[in-house]
Design goal:
The complex is a heterodimer of chains A (530) and B (513). Chain A starts with 8 loop residues before the first helix and ends with a helix. Chain A has one domain. Chain A is globular and about 70 Å long. With 530 residues, chain A is mainly alpha-helical. Chain A contains 22 helices and 2 strands. Chain A has a two-stranded antiparallel sheet. In chain A, helix 9 runs parallel beside helix 12, helix 13 packs antiparallel against helix 14 and helix 17 packs antiparallel against helix 18. Helices cover 74% and strands 3% of the residues of chain A. A two-stranded antiparallel sheet of chain B has the order 1-2. Helices cover 74% and strands 1% of the residues of chain B. Chain B has one domain. The C terminus of chain B is likely disordered. Chain B is globular and about 75 Å long. Chain B is built from 21 helices and 2 strands. Classes of the chains: A mainly alpha (530), B mainly alpha (513). At the A-B interface, strand 1, helix 5, helix 6 and helix 7 of A face helix 16, helix 17 and helix 18 of B.
Chain lengths: 530, 513
């Protein structure tokens, strides 16, 4: 694989800059809360600037090649190097992670979870950012593994310390599931390493040599990757940690989890499992497709049964990641492009939905759908944004969600490399039914929370009757509690909203970055699968 | 009469001694004597000087280790190949001296405040370290046994150091009885080997014991010797002493036992397997395979149920021992023997740092809480965030989470096993993978308490950590982090060529087969 090495300090800088901020914050006095927050936001902002500069320096005409590549020695004994680079597949996710962290930090400015201690919270977010960015730039399995794992602990603490009632259970479940996947991933990495001659852990080398491994062995090793990445995804039947983790996590954790962490699994399939083990991928593709549609239907039915807004959004993630998996399982250029687009779109849209859920919780102290209502009357702007995000999530054409879902379904009509067409077409039909269910649960959610009259307990009138004798002012105060979208919320959300529209109206913006890289990948796949 | 004695003496030729090579041992011997004598004349109020002095002795002994390493000649052999100073020995000598130094830092305050017998404590500890340092170079059944007893006997007494505490007495007693029992089994095995092979020199035994024509006595000898060491490294089912001893002994001593003493057992086991049994792999490999699988699984499952932090660490160290043992199950395979040795040595080094660090945090926290229960760690994050981060670092490293040292040790062990590329290797690796997850559960339990629970007694006054413990924490933290971020720094230790004699033995196999 050809690589471009111009300005190759950029990725290292962008990835490790947050750690510099962590060091500064460690020395910062804990009591100076706004100071701590400023340092955190400034660091994330600086990182984002590096990201924007990287975006401008990226050579879009050669996006199939690794750019800003570094290939330095790291652990020579085990033939693993500090090999990094960025191409069309990783660029959108790398940049997305920087944006999301920055915006989440702004949102946190006056939406700090109840447990307090912004210093630790901001430090964890910065560490998380390093782990996420590092995963997307890694071009070496061991390096990938290290970054993949770095993400674990900060998220564990984020859910466990700043989460809801059941946070301890949820955080441990999240941790153990992911750890389980990682352990098998490591064994699979090593098996692949030895089967290809034990020369290198570099992606380029393994993609070149992996095709030569025996078909049976490929299928076994792919099984290891499959467990690791499906747990992270999370796909049916390993999804049960997700609703718990999402429901219990603080808003910030949910957003980062939905926007970036869930993508590590699918990214692993596209970047590692499929190109390195073409025969294994082909053998597993039908199983992946079947699990994907089970996930779509199961997630959708799960959504219909939820009474908690955040849990509902979490289940919708399972369904959406099902579309991504379906696209990947077709092993076609079309399907994988759709999947990659779907990853970014889901990150933006579901991230946005979690933001809203967080703000609703902040105002009403509940997310029980049955207790909410009349949002359009009480805080119209928030209500409209919820409507917008729901529409985007159900895949309304013209918004970003559509371009992840629709092509993924379409691609199943004609799967690549002689995969069973009947099976995939059945999957296609089921997935299409899933979109109807998606419309059902999202519109139903919107109807119940935004339409109608605000429930008595949260409107001024109820406060009067509840606090009878407390005087007229008590009621007025309560009413003004429920304020509409705040300035920091606008600052954090506007980029999300704009991006959803821009990518919806002009998806080519992202497709043209990814397509050359995907095309090249599928071509390489074709060479070994014939 | 005298004349006849002298006449005999003329036949005796004094062995040539390489003074530079045994300088580390000599420094320790001199140090032991100085401290012993000084202790007699020192007033009680000045006994703290002994701790400092012991620390200096450790560092002093480290100097010749470093110079020998820097000179980097071929291995220096003495007494007819029975005492060899090669790179393998030097790395481990350095390791034991560093570990002992950290343990001294950890014990200092506890001994001072407890009013224990400080002089004797340090003398015994130095003796034990001397035994460990000798163990690394011993290449003969007799010198291995001498080194083993020299390091064990003081450790029995150290375990019972809190002499007014019945639990500590129990700890020392159990450790002593089972330890002696193990020594007896081992000695029996050794005598069988000597009887069968007519030599106590490991390499000569190694040349005689060849798969396919082993006699029954030889097989029993091999199994008994390994079983004897299995006690020392607390491998299941020979682990029963460990939890009680660890819990009852003073915490710094527990740290010493679980790291240094265990590592010494491993060093002896590795030396014997590589030099005396390399061609008897059909006997020891299945045995160690089963030991490793049992050790990591049973240790982990029992650790899950513990509520006392030291007991939990005891079971955790049992299960970590399983991971260290795991590569040795394939030490006889041609393509795995090199990486297996490397994996064991690297694991020992990393394990030393992180486990000592974990114990140092336990000591620091329990100075305030006066409790060994895991629940007493609650609220640490709110009143001592720095200490909470340290606890997190060490326990996460034990769980094997990058970028902390533990991941590389585990990774290397996995790699060594899979190097063998047999289906048994894949099965063992899968067992180990599942065990990694189980172990994460109880390490996370501690972290959960530290970060998410309230202080049990509502006491949130800050922790006051004495400077020696701070120094110990600092040293272990740096070690854990450096290895994790830049594993190359330790990855070259424990190469097959470092252990003198292995390559020749492999040649023997080739010629024979």
């Amino acid at each position: 694989m050809e690589t471009l090495t111009d300005q190759n300090f950029l990725l290292t800088l962008g990835t490790f800059l947050p750690l510099v901020g962590v060091l500064v914050m460690m020395l910062w006095p804990k009591d100076d809360e706004s100071g701590v927050k400023s340092v955190g936001i400034a660091t994330a902002g600086a990182t984002l600037l590096v990201g924007i500069y990287t975006l401008t320096q990226f050579d879009y005409s050669q996006s199939e090649k690794l750019q800003f590549a570094v290939d330095a020695e790291w652990i020579e004994v085990i033939r693993s190097g500090y090999t990094i680079g960025l191409d069309g597949i990783s660029l959108p996710l790398y940049f997305l992670s920087m944006c999301v962290t920055f915006l989440v930090m702004i949102y946190t400015w006056d939406n700090m979870p109840d447990a307090g201690n912004p210093k630790a919270f901001y430090i964890l977010m910065l560490v998380l950012q390093t782990g996420m960015a590092g995963t997307f730039i890694s071009q070496d399995l061991i390096l990938f593994f290290v970054f993949f794992e770095v993400v674990l602990l900060p998220m564990y603490f984020m859910i466990g310390v700043w989460g809801g009632e059941d946070r301890q259970y949820a955080s441990l479940k999240f941790f153990l599931y992911t750890m389980f996947g990682s352990a098998f991933m490591l064994v699979a990495f090593l098996a692949l390493f030895f089967q290809t001659g034990g020369e290198s852990f570099g992606f380029a080398y393994l993609i070149e040599m992996g095709a030569g491994v025996d078909r049976d062995v490929q299928i076994w090793i792919f099984a290891g990757f499959f467990i690791a990445f499906v747990v992270k995804l999370p796909g049916f039947p390993f999804h049960t940690w997700l609703p718990d983790a999402h429901t219990q996590a603080p808003t910030q954790g949910s957003v980062i989890l939905a926007a970036i962490l869930l993508k590590l699994g699918t990214y692993g399939f596209v970047r590692i499992a499929i190109p390195m083990l073409p025969e294994g991928a082909k053998a597993w593709a039908p199983a992946i497709a079947i699990l994907a549609v089970i996930g779509i239907i199961y997630g959708a039915l799960g959504c219909l049964a939820q009474t908690d807004m955040k849990r509902l959004i979490a289940f919708s993630s399972v369904a959406h990641m099902g579309y991504v998996m379906l696209g990947i399982s077709t092993l076609t250029e079309f399907g994988i492009n759709a999947a990659l687009f779907g990853m970014v779109a889901h990150g933006l849209i579901t991230g946005m939905l979690f933001f809203i859920a967080g703000s609703v919780k902040h105002r009403f102290h509940t997310l029980e759908i049955s207790r909410l209502g009349g949002m359009l009357i009480q805080m119209p702007k928030m209500g409209w944004i919820l409507g917008f995000a729901s529409m985007a999530s159900l895949g309304l054409p013209g918004l970003a969600g559509f371009w992840g879902e629709f092509p993924a379904i379409l691609s199943a009509y004609q799967p690549g490399f002689g995969l069973n067409e009947v099976l995939f077409r059945v999957c296609m039909v089921i997935a299409a039914i899933g979109t109807v269910l998606a419309a059902a649960y999202l519109l139903w959610l919107y109807q119940r929370t935004a339409f109608g009259q605000p429930p008595a307990e949260f409107s001024g009138g109820a406060a009067h009757s509840l606090s009878a004798g407390a005087g007229e002012h008590a009621g007025d105060d309560h009413d003004s509690d429920i304020e509409d979208v705040r300035p920091t919320e606008w600052m954090a959300w506007t980029p999300f909203l704009i991006a959803i529209v821009v990518f919806g109206v002009y998806p080519q913006l992202m497709f043209k970055v990814m397509d050359p890289a995907v095309t090249q990948m599928v071509e390489t796949l074709g060479k070994s699968l014939g | 009469m005298l004349a006849s004695l002298f006449a005999q003496a003329t036949d005796w030729v004094a062995p040539t001694i390489d003074w530079h090579a045994i300088a580390p041992e000599l420094v320790l011997v001199v140090g032991i004597n100085i401290i012993l004598l000084l202790d007699l004349s020192l007033a009680d109020a000045k006994k703290w000087m002994l701790a400092t002095l012991s620390g200096f002795v450790m560092l002093g002994a480290l100097v010749p280790v470093v110079t020998l390493f820097v000179i980097g000649d071929d291995s220096r052999s003495m007494f007819g190949g029975r005492y060899v100073i090669d790179e393998y020995a030097l790395v481990l000598k350095g390791f034991f001296l560093l570990v002992a130094y950290v343990v001294i830092l950890m014990s200092q305050t506890e001994l001072e405040e407890g009013g224990y017998y400080q002089g004797e404590f340090y003398v015994l500890m130095l003796c034990s370290v001397l035994g460990m340092v000798m163990m690394t170079s011993s290449r003969d059944l007799v010198s291995i046994f001498v080194a083993l007893e020299l390091l064990s006997i003081p450790a029995y007494m150290l375990a019972a150091w809190n002499k007014r505490n019945p639990k500590s007495n129990e700890a020392g007693m159990k450790y002593y009885l089972l330890g002696v029992f193990a020594s007896a089994i081992m000695l029996y095995g050794m005598s069988l080997l000597f009887g069968a092979t007519n030599s106590t020199l490991l390499t000569e035994i190694g040349a005689t014991l060849v798969d396919g024509n082993l006699s029954g006595i030889e097989v029993v000898g091999v199994v008994f010797v390994i079983s004897g060491f299995a006690f020392k490294i607390s491998a299941v089912p020979f682990h029963t002493w460990a939890p009680d001893t660890y819990e009852g002994a003073p915490t710094p001593v527990t740290a010493f036992l679980s790291v240094a003493s265990k590592a010494a057992g491993f060093v002896a086991l590795v030396t014997i397997i590589y030099l005396a049994f390399p061609n008897a792999s059909d006997v020891y490999q299945p045995f160690i395979w089963v030991l490793a699988a049992l050790t990591m699984t049973v240790g982990n499952v029992l650790a899950l149920r513990q509520t006392n932090i030291v007991r939990m660490l005891a079971y955790s160290s049992v299960s970590q021992g399983g991971f260290i043992l795991m590569p040795l199950a394939f030490a006889g395979e041609a393509n795995a023997s090199g990486s297996a040795l490397n994996a064991v040595v690297v694991y020992l080094l990393v394990y030393g740092f992180m486990n000592l660090g974990a114990f140092a945090t336990v000591i620091a926290v329990s100075r305030k809480t006066r409790s060994g229960e895991i629940s007493s760690f609650g609220g640490l994050f709110s009143y001592a965030p720095g200490m909470a981060v340290l606890v997190t670092m060490f326990f996460a490293s034990l769980a094997g989470i990058p970028p902390l040292g533990g991941w590389f040790a585990k990774f290397n062990a996995f790699k060594a096993v899979l190097d063998a590329q047999s289906s048994w290797a894949y099965v063992l690796a899968s067992i180990a993978a599942v065990n990694t997850v189980i172990s994460a559960a109880y390490y996370m339990k501690v972290l959960r308490t530290v970060w998410m629970d309230e202080a049990p007694d509502g006491d949130t006054s800050p922790i006051n950590t004495p400077s020696p413990i701070k120094a110990a924490l600092g040293l272990t933290l740096v070690g854990t982090l450096v290895v994790g971020v830049y594993p190359q720094s330790v990855a070259n230790f424990g190469d097959l060529e470092d252990l003198t004699g292995t390559t020749e033995l492999v040649v023997v196999v080739d010629a024979g087969g």
